[in-house]
Amino acid sequence: MFAVSASLVVASCGSDDTGGSQPTLTVLAAFYPLGEAARGVGGDLVSVTDLTPPGQGPHDLELQPAQMGAFEEADVVIYLGRGFQPQVEAALANSPAGVTRLDLLDSVDLLGVDEQLAGTEGEVDGEVLEGDVDPHVWLDPSRMITMVDAITNTLAEIDPDNADTYRANAETYLTDLRGLDREYRAGLAKCRSRVIVTSHRAFGYLADTYDLRQIPIAGISPDVEPDPRTLKAIAAEAKAEGVTTIFLESIAPPDLAKTVAREIGAELDLLDPIEGLTQDQLDAGDTYASIMRDNLRRLAAGLECAG
Ligand SMILES: [Zn+2]
């Protein structure tokens, strides 16, 4: 009798293993950092598709017709609402009621965008959400931790049989993020300047959490001629704040940033807003945390932080 029941147990384990190798949930993620977090929590149990292709930014994503079907098949769609990607919200409005919608903006404290300096001109398009809210929540590791918790709770709710696995996976992923948060707190604790001048107004949440102040450069298009009043206002403020580095997001510096840097004798450096990894970055094994650590090194150097 014993031998028979043992073999039954083995057989049922075997069939579970076969089932376990197939993802049980299909997840659509709006863009890279959300997709990485979903893969971190879901592991082998989820199949995650990023709606924003590698090398593209998420702002005002244009969905391809072929992507529409994915909304019907999805168990969960993880996104940022409030007009961040209007086409994703439109597709969700037409999706079956059974698709779980997870708007991560609902899980974190939101901030308005950092004001441009008086006297500066030029608009930054697609960077402000409904209610004048700043979308760039993922660039703050402490808010990312909260968003990973929201993803974990959602996956555990719709697939309760695997809740323990989601929580265990999340713990591993969060350990790295908590370490990253501690590195930011320590690395930016004592700095000669706490002001970051950025070409892309993406670092407001990071500045909020780690006690920095962001001065966004307006008129970031490389084709736009530097406006003399804007130039003067930014150069004066940057000089008064002891700024020695101007942070850009792409390798081609806009004329205005170059001119401001020359005017006050500052260096130029890059910060990655992790809006979409390029295929090269993905091939190199870059992750949210590895890029954020690189950003921290550049911030600490540019702000002349001790330790
Ligand atoms: Zn942005």
Mean pLDDT: 88
Q: Which oligomeric state applies? A: single chain
Give a quick account of the main beta sheet: strands, pairing sense, barrel closure. Answer: 4 strands, parallel
> Uncertain segments of ≥5 residues (pLDDT<50)?
1-19
What is the count of distinct domains?
A: 2
What is the number of helices?
11
Q: Within the CATH hierarchy, at the fold level, what is the topology of the largest domain?
A: Rossmann fold
| CATH 4th-level superfamily of the largest domain | Nitrogenase molybdenum iron protein domain
**H/E series:** HEHEHEHEHHEHEHEHEHH
Fraction in beta strands:
5-15%
Let me know the number of strands.
8
Please give the CATH class of the largest domain. Answer: Alpha Beta
Lateral strand order in the biggest sheet? 2-1-3-4
Tell me, briefly, the overall form: globular
CATH architecture identity of the largest domain: 3-Layer(aba) Sandwich
Q: Which ligands occur here?
A: zinc ion
Structural class: alpha/beta
Rg calculated over all Cα atoms:
22 Å
Distance between the termini: 68 Å
Percentage of helical residues?
Answer: 40-55%
